[in-house]
Design a protein that fits this description.
The protein is mostly helical. The chain contains nine helices and two strands. It has two domains: about 90 residues, no CATH class; about 55 residues, Orthogonal Bundle (Arc Repressor Mutant, subunit A), CATH 1.10.10.60. It has a two-stranded antiparallel sheet with strand order 1-2.
Length: about 160
């Protein structure tokens, strides 16, 4: 192998290693480079939206960050390696809710699965709230009613009697 070939091979390995090190934010920056501006706002293509939506859904399903009490938009942006303002804007525009509602909806979905799988039988509401990532019973009850239309007590009572 000539010296030139060795340098090229070394550069290719270095480039491949750098590609592996690129975080998701860098990947999105590549896509966002072709943003369309409309009235001063930046928009993502439908492909970019679906890519980020899939990434967010997988993250929520596998890592379950919503179970951490006090989990914030800043924490999620660090975990996903996306600036907080971009993540917040994406959730607001494309998911159609604010970050706290997005997080609480996942918490309530998790809580419903615990109830349906009889994992909440010997748990009081306060314990259930903490187990699902809420800081207190009141915020848990408010969110539960918002997303299910019932209080947690009514929901569990109805589930266990049917």
């Amino acid at each position: 192998m000539s010296a030139r070939q060795l340098v090229l091979a070394s550069n290719n390995r270095t480039e491949a290693q750098n590609m592996k090190k690129k975080n998701f934010f860098s990947f999105l920056q590549f896509f966002w480079h072709d943003k369309k501006k409309k009235g001063g706002k930046e928009y993502m293509s439908s492909q970019q939206i679906e890519l980020l939506r899939t990434r967010l859904e997988e993250f929520m399903e596998h890592k379950q960050p919503f179970l951490k009490q006090g989990y914030s938009i800043k924490d999620m942006s660090n975990d996903l390696e996306i600036p907080a303002y971009q993540l917040s804007g994406f959730i607001n525009r494309n998911i159609g809710m604010h970050f706290n509602d997005f997080l609480n909806k996942s918490r309530i979905k998790y809580c419903e699965s615990l109830i349906k799988n009889n994992m909440a039988l010997k748990t009081n509401l306060k314990e259930l709230a903490f187990k699902c990532g809420f800081n207190n019973r009141n915020s848990f009850t408010t969110a539960f009613k918002k997303f299910t239309g019932q209080t947690p007590s009514d929901y569990t009572r109805h589930h266990y009697t049917t």
